Amino acid sequence: MSLPHAILTALLEKPSSGLELTRRFDRSFGFFWSATHQQIYRELGKLEQSGAIRALPSEAPARGQKKEYEVLPAGRAELAAWAAAGQDPRPMRDPLLLRMRAAAVVGTAGLAAELRRHLDLHERQLEMYEGIERRDFPPERDSEQDRLRHLVLRGGIELETFWIRWLTQALDTVDGED
């Protein structure tokens, strides 16, 4: 996935200003594709320049007024082509796993505390995802779009559940060595 495609997706869901997009990334897209505010604004400029999006005309032009963007047909076509294309999974690169491998060689001092910290972070993230699920996906929301969005969230829930289970096992192993 790339940032331009994430932005096109967000704008097709709802035309937005740059500020609104950054807030949506902080609350939603950022869970699986993060970007800084500067990256989002820079990409909006590139997408506008390429003809994929345009700033909607404002009713009362004023200096410093926020621009709201919408996706143009070229942007929709680009996103559809990208969504239909294949892509191999990315190899996992996780510093915690590398730290554990290093601890196997140099000793586990401090490792249990780091594992507990990660466990706490994943438990909080899972709690947040489950709250979003309860709030945003009641049984009556059953359109195809809702089912696909819910499936993305379920992926996050399953990943957090995996990490919690794995970290618990890792702590049992490390604590058993003491």
Give a description of the structure.
This is PadR family transcriptional regulator. This protein has helices at 3-13, 18-27, 37-50, 73-84, 95-106, 111-136, 144-177; strands at residues 16-17, 53-55, 68-71. It is mainly α and 178 residues long. The protein has a three-stranded antiparallel beta sheet. Helix 1 (3-13) crosses helix 4 (73-84), helix 2 packs across helix 3 and helix 6 (111-136) packs antiparallel against helix 7 (144-177). The chain is elongated, with a radius of gyration of 21 Å.
| DSSP summary: helix tally | 7
* Low-pLDDT regions: none
Gap between N and C termini, in Å? 43 Å
Q: What is the residue-averaged pLDDT?
A: 90
List the strand order in the largest sheet: 1-3-2
Strand content: 5-15%
Approximate shape? elongated
| C-alpha-based Rg, rounded | 21 Å
Taken in chain order, the helices and strands follow as HEHHEEHHHH
**What is the number of beta strands?**
3
Q: In percent, how helical is the residue content? A: 55-70%
The secondary-structure class comes to mainly alpha
